[in-house]
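Table S7 (text form). Paired inputs.
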Amino acid sequence: MNIKMLRDGDDTTTYLVNNDGVETLFDYVSMIKLLHSEKAIGDTEFEGTYSDEERASIKQMVDKIAKAVIPVEAE
């Protein structure tokens, strides 16, 4: 699973992308289901303008979620 973030002006849209490339609008329930079935989070994709601080903060959050949800033996 990957996370794809698109920013257009003041609007930001976030998608979950499964291993088959299917994009779904982000919601936490869908993210947990994908994490449970796919056992991994790949890179976060950014489209649009994001500061270095925003990118680092989002990546840190995704890393924390992955470590909290994905069992060590699945890595």
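Next pair, protein 2 of 2.
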Amino acid sequence: MSTTASTVPGTGASDRAGASRRSGTFYRGDPGMWSWVLHRITGVLTFFFLFVHVLDTALVRVSPNAYDEIIETYKSPIVNLLEVALVGAVLYHALNGIRVILVDFWSKGPKYQRPMLWSIIGIWVVVMIPGTYFMLERTVSDLFGGGN
């Protein structure tokens, strides 16, 4: 007796599963799937940032001069853009984490998971627009004039 699902029509196999296998993917771009993917990516990026941050901070005890040189490189416009991306990643990861907790532990969570997803995206945009402005204000001023 086979434990795999049959793809023969009429044997109870899902048409969607069969179509997904034929097209090469099980995912069709549902917002919930992208939310899951983005949550994993932002978690990994945050982990690597924390890892690098611990290493560069530990460098102050080994070589204060090397530490000062590395901190000076952090003042570049490219790093400033990376800081904005980091804040965006951490904010999304935190908001989506709250949504995941609500879906898992609130009895009505699964019913409201899609509206909660759109709500966290809205909150993310509302927070990131002014946050990006204030984080990039000095860099834009330095690059395009107007800086002191």
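The helical segments are 15-23, 31-62, 64-73, 77-105, 113-144.
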